[in-house]
Amino acid sequence: MRAEKLLVCFYIMLLIRIQSWSSLLPISYSATVRYLPGFQGPLPFEMETGYVGVGESEYVQLFYYFIKSSSENPEEDPLLLWLTGGPGCSALSGLLYEIGPLHFVVKEYNGSLPNLVVNIQSWTQMASIIFVDSPVGTGFSYSTSSQGYQTGDFKASKDLYQFLTKWMIDHPEFLENHFYVAGDSYSGKIVPLVAKEISDGNEAGSELFINLKGYILGNPVTDPVFDSNKLVPFAHGMGLISNELYESVKRSCGENYVQIDPTNVLCWEDMQSFYKCISGLNQAHILEPFCTFASPIPKEVVGDRRSLRQSYSDQFLHDPQPPIPEVGCRTYAYYLAQFWANDYSVRNALHIHKGSIGKWQRCHHSLPYSYEIQNNIQYHLYLSKRVYRSLIYSDDHDMIVPFLGTEAWIKSLNYSIIDEWRSWIVNGQIGGYTRTYSNHMTFTTVKGGGHTAPQYKPKECFAMLKRWISEEPL
Which CATH number is associated with domain 28-224+329-474? Predict the structure, then answer.
């Protein structure tokens, strides 16, 4: 009798303890989304949203959108984990502006909820995609502890690996699907590290084996020496600076435009002239007009460093209350997102935890984030030795991360070329140029594109991924 009473007491105490924990820690969960405000009728694809708790105490709750492949055989299609750059830019950027199945109808805001339409070039026609708000503090992801918001390159990568393993446990039907880590812009720093975490876990005999096949990077931030040092030759090749200035700055700076000697007066003067020449351009796409509400040099490139490049770009950086862009500007769709994502009916449809965040921001540039990886080329070498496939694509009109810089760091890996530089065709037209290396890495440019590629060239990017994911030549 005494033993039974003790057992009852034990269960009561355990129930109280669980209830006290649950009041502090939200339970990770997922929910199906069949309708979205702004879109007419039921969604023509399978969508799920949810949170996954990560970290020792699961204070950090990473929010995600999952879109199942809408092909005829979704069970056989690959699974992608998509990471938007920033750091701190919401996964909705990838979902609504780049590769997801919905786009905004861009028209002047009149106080009503912005409308959504189907994106006929969505990558979800050939792959299932998990869009994650990462790192914590991005989009709808949040922490129940103030310490949880302290993050950086390494912690964000480990959180994502833990997120993925927990998500896979809840979705075991995808364990055998080919898996790829993908992302663009600042995610160029994070994607290879997450891929390494997965690879190391598999090699260590983790209870959960993830069928990693490779990774995909678009307009990737990789290394400041390669990325920024190619800004000057890129500008010269595009006719943005004179031959005289180009030759002068090469001589005075010794072709080193990143770590400038403070005593080198000639170099500083030449670089001042250089930035004056490019300061009025839309650096995301040099042929498009500069519009407000978006930064041509976002924090993902500048980071927390003061530099000569930044001093000439401050006038273009995000403003706490930026002017409203013109309807004809590409950035007007960014303006519409704040009205949509902050609407109560939208948050309710997405199953957002009430009170978890305040105002939703497309890009949260004031995150307490540590930029710990200056150069991640070592991770590309690591993954190459394990024979993972990789697709690296750049846009030839992107001046934020010039394609010349990406081309240069790939060359520094010192792998032999197995498919020489050539054009690739979409609907009878050149979509870009490509080259393949012996480490199973494909580098390609997207002709006429900007930062980031699918926003500017969705048809070409759709064809590019479809061929690569099927292991066909571009």
Answer: 3.40.50.1820
